[in-house]
Specification:
Blueprint: H1 2-5, H2 10-37, H3 41-54, H4 58-98, H5 108-113, E1 152-161, H6 166-175, E2 180-184, H7 186-191, H8 193-201, E3 205-208, H9 215-218, H10 222-240, E4 246-247, H11 259-267, E5 271-272, E6 277-278, H12 281-284, H13 288-299, E7 307-312, H14 315-330, E8 333-335
Helix pairs in contact: 6-14, 10-11, 13-14
Length: 347
């Protein structure tokens, strides 16, 4: 009995070992299940994506790759364009900073705008001789007066007539013992024949001034110039009996009378006249045209040769003509009419 109490029986030992193996098996099984459950989520996800991509259509995969490349290329171009614009703006700012400050310079057009225009605004004519120069100093010595005993010739020329009041102009000329020259348009000669006849009766010179008085028509060719002068001349001869070759082209000879045109009229025996004092009575239309003439005469105090004044048969010109004739008379000018022997003044 004593020996059985001190030790385990064989059966008990076997049972204990079996229970130990059972617990060990359960532990090992639970360990591997926990390890499998702890696998990274991202790894599982990647494996799922890779498996899905393996089942994609090869054409779709290739298109996705091309779209990605195109998007990258577009982004690259946008970046390059932004860099280019940035450099351009910087260069422009640098040029503006380096540009020296200059005082505004008045252009020829602005200078011309500050002065009266040339004859008949809207035509293509250049400034006439010495009409756009600065105003003269009023202290400048005027031309010789009548008291000095010397006489200086002035030619008063009237364009665009005749007119119904031509007789009033002639009356004023006679009052101051002046003669003048009238360059007349074909249609007006026909319209006012009595005015033309009165000019001839009083010793005024009658001349030619075209048919159309239109730059584009008159100056179209050498033939058009000569043709209009011939018709103008024939009409004047029919009305007045005077066969005149003294003429003035519309708006003056510059710049439209080319060398070819000048030769053509000269070959036909015509004598072309311009002027060297522009009253601009067609522009001012009041007493200012008289002041304008006086200023130009003062500037020509030392001028050698005749003064040829451009006027027009206008009501406004007639209204202030007495003031001009009074000035010329007091300054000792002799008003003469142009004739075929007078050396012409031309531009």
């Amino acid at each position: 009995m004593g020996n059985r109490k001190r030790g385990w029986t064989k059966g008990s030992v076997v049972v204990i070992i079996a229970i130990g193996f059972l617990f060990a098996g359960v532990f090992v099984s639970n360990y591997f299940q926990a390890k499998a459950a702890s696998k990274p989520i991202n790894l599982q996800k990647n494996e799922h994506i890779n498996q899905a991509e393996q089942h994609l259509d090869p054409k779709m995969a290739d298109q996705n790759t091309k779209d990605a490349k195109l998007e990258k290329e577009w982004i690259r171009k946008q970046q390059q364009e932004a860099v280019r614009k940035n450099k351009q703006e910087q260069n422009q700012e640098q040029r503006q900073e380096q540009k020296p400050v200059q005082k505004p310079v008045q252009t020829p057009a602005e200078t011309k705008a500050a002065q009266p225009p040339t004859k008949e605004t809207g035509t293509s004519q250049p400034p006439k001789q010495e009409t756009n120069t600065p105003q003269s100093n009023q202290t400048q010595t005027p031309p010789a007066s009548a008291s000095s005993g010397s006489k200086k010739t002035v030619y008063l020329t009237f364009d665009d007539g005749p007119a119904p009041f031509s007789g009033e102009i002639i009356t004023l000329l006679e009052k101051y013992h002046f003669k003048a020259t009238f360059f007349m348009i074909d249609g007006n000669i026909r319209r006012y024949p009595n005015s033309v006849k009165l000019m001839v009766q009083n010793g005024e010179t009658v001349g030619l001034h075209s048919v159309s008085h239109n730059v584009k028509i008159f100056y179209a060719s050498a033939n058009s110039v000569v043709s209009e002068l011939n018709q103008n001349r024939n009409t004047l001869k029919t009305v007045s009996g005077i066969d005149s070759h003294i003429m003035r082209t519309p708006y003056g000879s510059a710049p439209n009378m080319t060398d070819e045109y000048k030769k053509a009229v000269k070959d036909q025996g015509y004598i072309m006249w311009d002027w060297n004092i522009d009253s601009k009575d067609w522009y001012y239309k009041d007493a200012r045209y008289v002041s304008n003439v006086i200023e130009q005469i003062n500037r020509k105090a030392n001028h050698n040769g005749p003064l040829v004044i451009l006027l027009h048969e206008r009501k406004e010109t007639l209204a202030h003509l007495p003031a001009l004739l009074d000035y010329l008379s007091k300054q000792g000018f002799e008003g003469k009419a142009i004739d075929a022997t007078t050396p012409p003044v031309q531009f």
